[in-house]
Here is the input.
Amino acid sequence: MSGKPYQWVDETVEEMGARFGIRATEKLLDEQTPYQHLEVWRTQHWGNLMRLDGVMMLSSLENFVYHEMMSHPALQTHAAPRHVVIIGGGDCGTLTEVLKHREVESVVQIDIDEAVTRAAERFFPELTAHNDDPRVDLRFEDGVAWMRNAPTASVDVIIVDSTDPIGPGTGLFGPDFLADCHRVLRDDGIMVGQSESPFYHMPLMIDYHRAMRDAGFAERRSLLFPQPVYPGGSITGTLARKTGSLDEIRPLAADVATRFYRSELHRGLLAIPPFMQEALGDV
Ligand code: SAM
Here is the structure.
């Protein structure tokens, strides 16, 4: 810790000339897994913090925002989400939110890196507490290959809770993977993918929308929401539906407790800000 009682843990985005940092008091885990560099830090104000390949993933304090927004909008748009697949999501925060929905009968989660889930069990136990739910099937393999081999029209909702499009996450943003997602979803199926920040990654978002359109998704909408530990402070989840409208939102069941998501907010976020609408144009 270089003699000081704390150390700055940074994420740098070279191409945007930006850096974001959090003060940490102790490194709890430092592991080179077969896929990525995994770190967990104890911080002064954010609880525990996970980084993968130097990129902030989640902190104890604020991860509920991301995990709720990667799950509830898609599930509340589907009329009857019974079979859900999560690609990535190894910290199990999104899984925790999906399991709150009683109508969900099965959740298969495919993360390439088992070390992320084992680290979450140690340092974010509140996110893995329900992993023994009988509806859960945790697999540790490549999500791209899994989707390529999955049966056609077998899933209601696909959630892509991935790392950035570098390293193992690259294929999860590509046209072949998105075409497979389209094939694996039932006709009324919905997918949502982590699609980065419009302030930092607009070309990526445009490519993502284009690939979803080319895969056959009738409608696409990127919901912008806060992400306090990412440089830029916000991120998008892009929803895509095979048929029907993304404006049809079911009210949240009374027993699904949330701290960020609510139907009114979901409806409001569907009104895409003009600067994003303009950039995404007709893709
Ligand atoms: N909230 C996060 C973020 O965007 O910063 C995402 C967190 S979650 C930890 C991302 C997960 O995606 C990681 O656990 C990583 O192992 C997984 N992942 C990356 N590439 C993958 C692939 N090809 N197949 C399955 N999982 C993958």
In short: The domain at 63-280 is CATH 3.40.50.150 (Rossmann fold).
